[in-house]
Amino acid sequence: MNREEIIKFFNEKLKENNIKISDEQMNNFILYMDNLIEWNKKINLTAIKEEKDIIVKHFIDSILIEKEVKGEKLIDIGSGAGFPGIPLKIVRNDLDVTLIDSVNKKVLFMQNTIDKLKLDNIIAVHCRAEDYAHDKQYRESFDVVTSRAVANMSTLVEYMLPFVKVGGKCICMKGPNSEEEINDSKKAISILGGEIERVEKYKIDDNDRCLVAIKKVKKTEQIYPRNQGKPLKVPLK
After folding, report:
1. What is the CA 119 to chain-centroid distance, rounded?
2. Res 170: pLDDT
3. Disulfide check for 170: which of 77, 148, 160, 212 has CB 3.0–4.6 Å away?
4. How far apart are CA 44 and CA 27, in angstroms?
């Protein structure tokens, strides 16, 4: 696809999903895609390599949750190649965004993309969520915490909820057939100070998606998240 064809296709998908972006934002998305494709030749950032699939499965999927993002401070856990954090920053310049991932090569890619797009108030950090969440500077200091398909819900919420302030929100982006996983996570969510606000199923083209919004209703006990991989090995039940 040439640039004109990419823009035409992207605009069609934006219109289908009732999303509007500026010409500058469109240019940033195209720069982002070009950088992703180039880096993906050298390191494994994403299995999604076709331009149309990147637009639908990464960009549209990410910015569709923008309506859920209230407040200014957002942290994206297990960002990988920057989804959904960087697309959200492109469409919401008011956001102060922190992207974290435990794989340094992915962090280097995200920082390179941030620099190329000349985005302000967004950083990429190489760290583990269970360590970062115990830093007083970041613990319970964010309005919104996002994560996309990083882990099972019971594990994921132990990484996420310690970051969000009381009254803030976790946004978990999951695939189809998540009902059992969501139900199994309710005890963990309660232990960690959250409650499920709503679950929304939706489609992007033929892709079934599920959004789980969790409100933080009380402070998380200091022992969470547990370290040494325990949230993954022994999820709260």
Report:
1. 17
2. 97
3. 160
4. 24
pTM, rounded to two decimals: 0.95
Report the distance separating Cα 90 and Cα 31, nearest Å. 11
Q: Which residues pair with 169 in a beta bridge?
A: 144, 215
Inform me whether the pLDDT recorded for 228 exceeds 90.
no
Q: What are the helix (H) ranges across 72-184? A: 85-91, 104-117, 129-132, 153-160, 179-184
- Tokens 């189809």 correspond to 176
Tell the burial category of 123 from Cβ atoms under 10 Å away from its Cβ (0-12, 13-18, 19+).
middle
Q: Is the pLDDT of residue 155 over 90?
A: yes
How are strands ordered across the β-sheet holding 122-126? 122-126, 96-101, 73-77, 142-148, 164-174, 207-216, 194-204
Report whether 176 contacts 123 (CB < 8 A).
no
Q: If you search the block for the tokens 């309506």, which residue do you land on? A: 67
pLDDT in tens, 1-54: 899 999 999 999 999 999 999 999 999 999 999 999 999 999 999 999 999 999
Residue with tokens 């199923």: 201
